[in-house]
Amino acid sequence: MATSVKSIDKSLKDYGRGITGGLLFSLPMLYTMELWWAGFIANSLQLIVYFIVGMFLLMVYNHYVGIRREHSFLEGLEESIEEMGMALLLTVFILWVTGRLAPNMSLNEISGKIIVEAVTVAIGISVGKSQLGSEGDEKNDKDEDEQNKWSKNPNILRSVNIALCGAILIASNVAPTDEVMVIALEAEIFKLLLIALLSIGIGGAVLYYINFKGAKEAVLQPHNFKQVVFGTVIMYAVALASSAFMLWFFGRFDGLSLYGIVAETVVLGFPAALGASAGRLLIQT
Questions:
Q1: pLDDT digits (tens, 9 = 90+) for 74-89
Q2: Structural domain that includes position 224
Q3: Among positive and negative, which fits the CA dihedral 147, 69, 89, 170?
């Protein structure tokens, strides 16, 4: 029973790293109008070929670099199908919550947008599962004790500064674009709330649950509920502050109401939260 629970926990962490990797590497593309249009104008043959090429790349990556180094062709195919399935679901959710999918759209437009975006997301998921795990999982107790000793007195100011660097590094890819304004002004209130909750949830999971690369060295270990809440709130506050600054700097607040300003900040806060959590851990390791 304990082994089963541990296996489920490990699988959830693998999936969490996969989703984070998929978003980290592809979110700017999910926010790009040209890719929305590429999915709209592509014909069926182009989409089929693009999807097949994506599956081929996944299988090649999983065979040579992926999380299971020694596996048969069928196991590699199964893992690639699993990653593509995750990518399709994640892409559908992100395109829906940002208002890029709607019931009045044709089937060709919907499927085109999903396939064009999902291929990149799937590759990011594969990379996230195999490359973004913490090496601390494989270290002995002595190494973990040394890590815990090092991290008992973390430098809060240093963490905030690096989180700010990570947020700006990731979010600056989309901050100057029109897509942020389009998504924000067209989004319903409940979708903005979903985006905010998703940002907080993924950011907190990266820092405290999924054993993301660098978390054991950079985040207080071991942690209790109060520390998790405090760290997650600080992370999201940094993400929102950096988002607001970049939007103001690029003139995206000009002529907007308070609602528009908040909406834009929340929308850009999604990639910024990825930067303030996952990006922060990567750039300091």
A1: 888 888 999 999 999 9
A2: 138-283
A3: positive
